[in-house]
Amino acid sequence: MRLENSNRFHRLSWLHDIDVYEASFDNHVFGRHAHATFSVGTILEGVGGYRCRGSDHVLPVGALTLINPEEVHTGRAVGGRLRYTMLYVGEAGITEMLGVRSVRGFRDVSPSDRSQVITQAASNLVLALRNCENRPGWRLQVEELIHRLVLATFSQFGGVASIRPGNEPNAVRYLCDHIAAQIADDQCGTLSVTEVAASLSLHPNYLIQSFSHAKGISPYAYYMSRKINVAKDLISRGHHPLQVGLDLGFYDQSHFIRHFKKVFGVTPGSIHVH
Asked: Which SUPFAM superfamilies match (predicted)?
C-alpha cells in the first residue's frame, strides 16, 4: 500500500478551520472510522467505494459522498486509480456560512451531482490551494469556491434554502473600491470577502451573490479582470510583460498568460504600441 505524494490536507485556519483533502491512490483501504464534521466528497477520476449505513456504495465520476458528523464509514478505490476531494466542515462553520441556526444533515449519502456545480467547485478549490502563496487573490478565490460548494451541497441535499442576491449598490461599490485599493497597494494575497462582508455587516455568501448579480461576474473574477487591465496598461507604457507579471504577483507565467488571454484574447507579449 502506498499513498502518492500528491495527497494533501489543507487547513483553512482563517475560514472556520475547514479541512480540504485531495487524494490520489489505487490500493489504499480506509478502515471503519468517523469524523466530527460534515464530509462532502467528490470523485474526480476513477471509481470509489465505501460502506455506510449498512450498505455498500460504488461511486463513479460525478457521484458525491455526503456523510454526517460521527457517521461511521469505510473507503477504498474500486479497481485502478482513484482521485477525489473531501471537504470537512463543522456544524458551526456550516451554520455560519449559510446564515441558519441549524442544519438537519444529509439523507442520501451518495447522490449524483447532475449539475456538476459541486464537483467543479471542488476541483477548482484544490487547484487554487496548490502553491497558493504564489497566486494573486488566492484567498478571495478559495472563499468563493468554499461558499459556492457549501451552498450548492446543502441547498440541494441538506434542506437549506438558497441564499438569494439582494440590491446592494453601496456594498458592491465598496467592494469594487476595496479591490482596486488592494491591487494598488499590492495586498491582494490577503484580500478576503469574509472580512469585507463583516465590515459591511453583511453575510459573506449574500455579498458574493449580490455582487455577482449586480456585476455579472463574481468578486474574484472582477478582481482578476481589474488586475489584468492594470497589467495591460503597464505593458502598453513600455514595461516588459515578464516583469509586469512578476510585479503583479503572477509568479507562474503560464497562469498570467492564461488569465490575460481570457480578458483580451491575446498573450501579454502580443501588445504593440505605435
From this structure: Homeodomain-like, Regulatory protein AraC
Say how far apart CA 169 and CA 104 lie, in whole Å.
Answer: 34
Cell of 274: 505605435
- Residue 216 in 3-state DSSP? coil
Judge contact between 218 and 208, C-beta under 8 A: yes
Rounded to two decimals, the pTM is 0.89
pLDDT in tens, 92-106: 999 999 999 999 899
Rounded Cα distance, 147 and 124, in Å = 13
| CATH numbers and ranges of domains, the chain | 8-157 (2.60.120.280), 169-270 (1.10.10.60)
One DSSP character per residue, 152-199 reads HHHHHHS-PPPPPP---HHHHHHHHHHHHHHHHTT-GGG--HHHHHHH
Q: How far apart are CA 94 and CA 100, in angstroms?
A: 8
The pLDDT tens digits of the residues spanning 232-267 come to 999 999 999 999 988 888 877 888 999 999 999 999
